[in-house]
Amino acid sequence: MRPIRSSDDAMMCHRHVTSDRLCEHPTDAIALSFPAAMHVWLETESDIMFACREVRSLAERLNFNRSSTYQLATAASELASNLVIHAGGGWLSATPMTKQCLTPPQGIELLSKDDGPGIVDLILALTEGYSTTGSLGCGLPGVKRLMDTFAIDSEPGRGTWVRAVKWH
Ligand SMILES: Nc1ncnc2c1ncn2[C@@H]1O[C@H](COP(=O)(O)OP(=O)(O)O)[C@@H](O)[C@H]1O
Ligand SMILES: [Mg+2]
């Protein structure tokens, strides 16, 4: 998949949606990543709680403030619950990121990937209140709002991929 970037809040095309708050945070296209601190297969409610705790602990270790730590853990929890509820399981990773190789990591990338049923209409899926399971429908819009960079790609019948990054 070719990355698409935009300084707008969101740039949308048929199967791919991405947003990048370039004004506050320069593009992370050249960011370096460390080995994933967490890379787990999620299938159950307790897996969701585990992933959420791991992401919170990673954020604390990287000196994210309390509010950003909470936002990262919330985003991880939403991605994790989507993997469990909508995809029947999937992978979630959390990876420290840096923009300058000599400084300690100042960002965390969340990456979720599954081979589930995929999403037919990404624009609808990102609309506040839209849910195919009668739940709140705030998960994906929430992740997009809470994180600095957000991209999603999905293909019906083949699965879904979400990448979101938060910086200090
Ligand atoms: N990993 C996924 N695989 C398949 N469908 C998904 C996935 N994540 C989200 N969706 C779809 O996008 C919709 C919106 O997701 P979300 O905003 O998290 O709301 P909710 O989980 O409350 O339904 C879901 O109802 C579901 O149809
Ligand atoms: Mg959800």
TrEMBL record:
<dbReference type="Pfam" id="PF13581">
    <property type="entry name" value="HATPase_c_2"/>
</dbReference>
<dbReference type="InterPro" id="IPR003594">
    <property type="entry name" value="HATPase_dom"/>
</dbReference>
<feature type="domain" description="Histidine kinase/HSP90-like ATPase">
    <location>
        <begin position="51"/>
        <end position="166"/>
    </location>
</feature>
<keyword id="KW-0723">Serine/threonine-protein kinase</keyword>
<keyword id="KW-0808">Transferase</keyword>
<dbReference type="InterPro" id="IPR036890">
    <property type="entry name" value="HATPase_C_sf"/>
</dbReference>
<dbReference type="GO" id="GO:0004674">
    <property type="term" value="F:protein serine/threonine kinase activity"/>
</dbReference>
<protein>
    <submittedName>
        <fullName>Putative anti-sigma regulatory factor, serine/threonine protein kinase</fullName>
    </submittedName>
</protein>
<keyword id="KW-0418">Kinase</keyword>
